[in-house]
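**Protein of interest**
===
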Amino acid sequence: MLILKDVQAGYGNIKVLKGVSLEVPDRSIVTLLGANGAGKTTTARTITGLTSATGGTIEFNGARIDKLGPDKMIGRGIALVPQGRMLFPELTVDENLQLGAYTRRDSAEVRVTAEKAYAQFPILKEKYKHDAGTLSGGQQQMLAIARALMGQPKLLILDEPSLGLAPRIVQEIFDTIVRIREDGCAILLVEQNANMALAISETGYVLDSGRVSISGSAKELANDARVQQAYLGHSD
């Protein structure tokens, strides 16, 4: 479904991605691990066109997308839940949700998708008239995911969805990610919570200084001594 080959990207004269290659198969969960500054968020931004690739190729469903702008990605079936959620705090929950469907024209189908999102996150249904800025951190993360799903993506990219959340809420978020995959959506999960991310993933990649340093099945990564020491809290 998604294939990155030797992708390079950065900001001005600063090269962040120095040749990243990875794949996200259809209907799979793939985890992207790495320390702060390794290039995880830049990878997510480059896939979605928010940061321009300066080298390599990105293909989605057999077509090149590395020259497309971010406004084209929803139409192609790619949605990003950015780090920090990026909600509109003074708009209501429902208004934020509807913004996720801005490319869709069939209002009846949009309502069906919204009801499905509210069924997925019942607390959002309870608070649909509340301003998004009044929600807890966990509720805001749920809204950010629900908003992305309004575009009916084939690939959902989640950038640090567990960041700053209580353990109970993190578990709810990860349970939701599994359900989204079960509904047929592929997921690229950018995470620092390696234990939980690898537990729900089929494959994983570790970024180090803008390059993939380790890749393999989620089980292989979980059993890799380098990953255990760096990300899973194990030591020799």
Residues 25-50+69-231 form a domain with the Rossmann fold fold (CATH 3.40.50.300). Residues 167-182 form the longest helix (16 residues).
